[in-house]
Amino acid sequence: MSTPAQTLTNDSAAARARAVIPGGVNSPVRAFGSVGGTPLSIVSASGPRVTDVTGRDYVDLVASWGPALLGHAHPEVVDAVQRAAARGLSFGASTPGETELAELVIDRLTVGGVRGIERLRLVSTGTEATMTAIRIARGATGRDVIIKFAGHYHGHSDGLLAESGSGVATLGLPGSAGVPADIAALTLVLPYNDRAAVEAAFAAHDGRIAAIITEASGANAGVLAPEPGFNAFLADTAHAHGALLILDEVLTGFRVGPAGWWGLEQTGAHPFAPDLVTFGKVIGGGMPLAGVGGRAALMDLLAPLGPVYQAGTLSGNPLAVAAGLATLRLADADVYAHVDTAAIRVQAALHDALTAEGLPHVISRAGSLFSVAFREGAVRDYDDARAQETWRYGPFFHAMLDQGVALPPSVFEAWFLTAAHDEDALTAIVDALPAAARAAASA
Ligand code: PMP
Which positions carry the signal peptide feature in this UniProt record (predicted)? Predict the structure, then answer.
């Protein structure tokens, strides 16, 4: 039975969804798990705004959890996808577009004459990208153990959910049921930004560690930037012990700058050489596309050249590649400058609004990515991120939503600005903040 469109509300849409979809959502972060209330049911989006089933518009700071760097439904991206669709949805064969995209990504990841990656294999999700990177690392080293950091999220594969960020953090879970203990035991979870913990892990498990996987900058337990030189330390330490460094740029890649977080560090005081780099989100411009890249010698371990198997019916899907190519071609220096400036403006207004209410807070930043934590003092690791007045975020979030601004529905997620956040959109955000700060203060 279909519901007439004019009677739809977010409540009725969610109730109908819950009857047939677990929790009414196809990804847990979409449920308003920690902020309460009914999730929005979105029917369309354009530029900086999304529109729900009731026809109400919101200025959007979720940006599809990162991919919408240019804003929603950029006309040139939509046109590229429509033209690709008219040529066929999927061929199960190589296409010239995927080679162009690999060339473009390798070119972008060449900074100061240094090549960050030499080969790229396309997959459909960030989860597949990190899962494949780990398989390559294990295949290359003949070792089994992986180091990850508490509060980092690398997708939902078995070995990577322990003390994970994103929805796992929002829901306060230690990991996931259904992961065999023997597999979980192969993942060592360490506190982020803690060099001594990394050295101790290598000392305790010498010769068994295949790789360290790290978010290029932490951004899934709130924004947790690496301390200066920490990524370079990870690369050096891994290499000194015959292990690899997997840099997860699924969230940061092509968002914090043209060559991702690695690009920012490459031109800074502590350049470093990751062995494998994973991409997602912006690389597909809103379509299901992700990738794993690295040095030729490592990447050529993948089938059909080598013994490490990985495959995908829809890998390098032509519509997704068209969206990714169009997005990356449009993501020029002006786009990054706009996103940076917009982020600085919103951060300043957020700080002012919270200060006016006398609320303890820290705004953690990593390039244009930022998030708020309701506490004092720097947030350096997952324990710091959790030690805050998390309950203040729900009222803050809902006060923003009531005023037409959709924030990420968790205090542990970054706020995403886009190139489409124009003066109107930024003013709407800034104007809504004082009332939200009042709601947070009275919580
Ligand atoms: N790595 C990081 C750093 C991420 O932020 C995410 C998703 N938020 C993933 C991996 C997983 O990507 P996907 O959701 O496409 O599987």
Answer: none
Residue 5 has pLDDT above 90, yes or no: no
Q: What is the ipTM of this complex?
A: 0.99
For 80, residues 6+ apart whose C-beta sits below 8 A from its C-beta are 322, 323, 325, 326
Out of 58, 60, 153, 336, the active site residue is: 153
Q: How far is the CA of 362 from the centre of ligand 1 (A)?
A: 25
Q: Which domains are seen in the chain, by residue range?
A: 5-61+333-441 (3.90.1150.10), 76-330 (3.40.640.10)
Name the DSSP letter for residue 302: B
Query: Is the per-residue pLDDT at 295 higher than 90?
Result: yes
Give the pLDDT confidence score for residue 4 in this predicted structure. Answer: 53
Ligand 1 pocket by Cβ (under 6 Å): 65, 125-127, 130, 153-155, 166, 215, 220, 248, 250-251, 280, 290
Catalytic residue among 60, 148, 192, 248: 248
pLDDT tens-digit map of 304-328 = 999 999 999 999 999 999 999 999 9
Phi-psi region of 151 (alpha: psi -120 to 50; beta: other; left: phi over 0): left
Any idea which residue has 């993948």 for tokens? 302
